[in-house]
Amino acid sequence: MAARAESQAKTPAPSNAAELTVSELSGALKRTIEDRFGYVKVRGEVSGWRGPHSSGHCYFSLKDEGARIDAVIWKGTYGRLRVKPEEGMEVIATGKITTWPGKSAYQIVVESIEPAGVGALLAQLEERRKRLAAEGLFDEARKQLLPFLPQVIGVVTSPTGAVIRDILHRLADRFPTRVLVWPVRVQGETSAAEVAAAIEGFNALPEGGALPRPDVIIVARGGGSLEDLWGFNEEIVVRAAAGSMIPLVSAVGHETDWTLIDHVADRRAPTPTAAAEMCVPVRSDLMAQIASLEGRMFGARARYFERRRSDLRSLARALPNAEDLLALPRQRLDRAAEILPTRLHQALNARHLRLGRLAGLLAKHSPQAELARRRAQFDALVHRHVALARPGLFTERRASDLRVKSDRLRAAMRYRLHNAVERIEAQRRRIEDFDRRLAQCARTVVPRRQEQLRSLSQLLSSFSYRNVLARGFALVRDASGTPVRSVATVGPGAVLDIELADGHVSAQAEGEAPPRPAKPSRAPPVKKDQGSLF
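Given the sequence above, the corresponding structure tokens read:
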């Protein structure tokens, strides 16, 4: 009985519940959860962040001290997020709860995400600042100098805010300049992309194109909270500002507000109005400075010309007299004219003496004299030979030796006579060549020397004071023969010799000697009033 009772207890009681497949049960659970929760906000820490997948989707988890939930961000949603999740970041995610039947798991499909409080934003901002600074984007060596007087200023800001009106008003007050405005959103999810595109767009404008390329760019926005200014902390904006080839001024927020674009910009302005003041100088100050420099320039030029005039007058007074300059060349010319005939006669006499010596040497060694001398020697030898060959004086043997020696002597004499004739002929030709060259030299050098003599005579005649006398002037000398150069040097009763072109005339001075002219004082010249230049 007990076993039967136990068997009956283990058998399940009959039920009216319908049988469900696994897919049907999973679908029912999915519908129940989605209908029950719908859209929710979940606060937690990002864990297991796996960035954009190859498909563009992002997978991670949200956790707190007691639980965790899987999360997914689809590709289209991730591109619109203003704040990108990072590992360990505390966020508030808004999305829809759903299930994944293939794994019997539930997850949240995130549609928006934001940091959980200002502290998280500051931590993310500090981490991003350190990372970008490590890349060298904030180095002072990369920053450019602003142009002194830009022709075109590009402004990246909202066209409807008060910022652009403040900038235009300040530029009009200081120095009216052409302004190009690139309208962007300065707050919201798309503000960072629009600001970066505006900076890159200004840099892409060609120089000399239909739309002028700005000389400086101002990125401006009014004040706001950290969340409002977050678009200017995005990495895309920082990298666009760092890559700008045009000098960039950051004027985002108030003086106490700092964003990452302030660190990478070439200059940081506390307000948009201050940015306009940095870009252009004050026109009235420039005009006053130019007027002052112009006055200084005219004054310096007048002083320079006056100093040059004074130097010129001093040099003119120090210039020597023309007569003193020509005195030494005239003396050298007179000396050359005196020496030239003597030197010419000496040269001709030396040439004649050398020619006489050469003629005497030629006569002494002429072929006729050398031939007569050799013939006399030959006749003496023949006479001696005849005397020695008479019979009865020598034996036949001695006669035979004598004949042999006589033959050898005749041959030697003929050979020496022949050589002597050839040498004499060579000397004669050489002497004739010397004579011809001497005659040619005399025909060439003598006319050239005569021509030089005529030129020097003409030059001497042109420098001679007698030509001046021939034109009606007179040369006055005192009793010692010294030329009279001034009336002040002639005393009353002085005897004067007046030389004219055709002779001399004696004269005697009358009257009193005129007083010597007083030497003019070298007082500084009185400057005339120039008057105002303006």
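The mean pLDDT is 80. Try to locate this feature in the token string yourself.
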